[in-house]
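Audit log entry. Action: structure prediction of a protein-small molecule complex. Ligand: pyridoxal-5'-phosphate. The ligand was supplied as SMILES and no pocket hint was given, so placement is left entirely to the predictor. Protonation state taken as written. Sequence taken verbatim from the request; no trimming, no tag removal. Recorded inputs:
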Amino acid sequence: MQSFYPPQRVLMGPGPSDVSSRVLMASARPTIGHLDPAFIALMEETKTALQRVFKAPDHACIPLPGPGTSGMEAAIANLLEPGDTAVVAINGVFGTRMADMAERQGAEVVRVEFPWGEPVDPQKVEAALWARGAKVLAFVHAETSTGAMTDPAPLCAVAREHGALSIVDCVTSLGGIDVDAAGWDADVLYSGTQKCLGAPPGLAPFAMGKRAMEAIKNRKTKSRNWLYDLSLLMSYWGGEGGRAYHHTAPINAIYGLHEALVSLFEEGLDNAIVRHRKNHEALAAGLATYGIEYQVAKPYRLPQLNAVKVPEGIDEAAVRQRMLDQFDLEIGGGLGPLKGQIWRIGLMGASSTPRHVRLCLTALGEALDHQGRKVSIVDALDAAEPLLG
Ligand SMILES: Cc1ncc(COP(=O)(O)O)c(C=O)c1O
């Protein structure tokens, strides 16, 4: 067995995104004990920083040990008990996953389905809540499988009117588009570190409001999931009466998340959001010169996840392979019914820069040219240049 040295890639797929050397170096700082006072101080600062990034001053915020899916698991396993009803809005892979998880908790799941590539329509969701009532309404803010953005504000409002708790998947949205837990009055939100926050995968920033805490306190049965039992996790992260050992925190991963948040606040959250939007507009202008169209209608497009249609006659997997081989640049393919039909180009976190836009247009243009498509890389770069952020 030998040491592993990964190839140097440029990550422009659906995640993970590039991690800055600043964040990587922070993760490599010496490991200390998870009960060391210095680490406890870092935990406290990380909680406050997460409140700031979720815009959730009154929510309890912690990073869960595990990928974005662990945030989903925690939200669903804690808010739902056998026999409860959950309305789940589904417009892609991750809504489907939420519904599956809710069923595994023994809940009655009402699936409200939308075409992939479209946002969730609050009126259809409200009709389901009228018809059935529910303890939980779950949906995805930024559907990474399709590139579609859903406005959480009306959905959280509808949930409240019907006495349901809202669960908002912010895995791809946090740090890339506006996430406003307080403004939406959302109950539970979770994210991942490896997308627009620009840290390595492995943690799920999590925010829980007071109504959700109350619901968890009033459960009739214990949560079936021990690791993600939020009452236990919150005690570990500094509950009343001191910390109770629960698990050993992924210490170095938390250094990385902390540094990513420091760097995000140095830039300014609003500036980061503007940067994501500008680089998306520049990429879109360049792609248009190649005749490449978006999968999602303009008002609902995610700037950080560009889902674009593969032009007729082009071998989509061969294009991705060529970009990887010639430019060390990774973009993503489609999932489920969109497999083979779209590319998913991420402009997330440290991968949302003018350099990434230029490189992607160049590499994609070269790969299209290699398949006999006449495109002008110079024209694409010229179209993008004035819009870069
Ligand atoms: C919207 C959304 N939710 C949940 C997840 C799951 O996150 P992870 O792969 O980190 O478990 C992803 C991952 O891409 C996602 O995009």
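Audit: result stored. The radius of gyration is 21 Å. Residues 358 and 381 are 6 Å apart (CA to CA).
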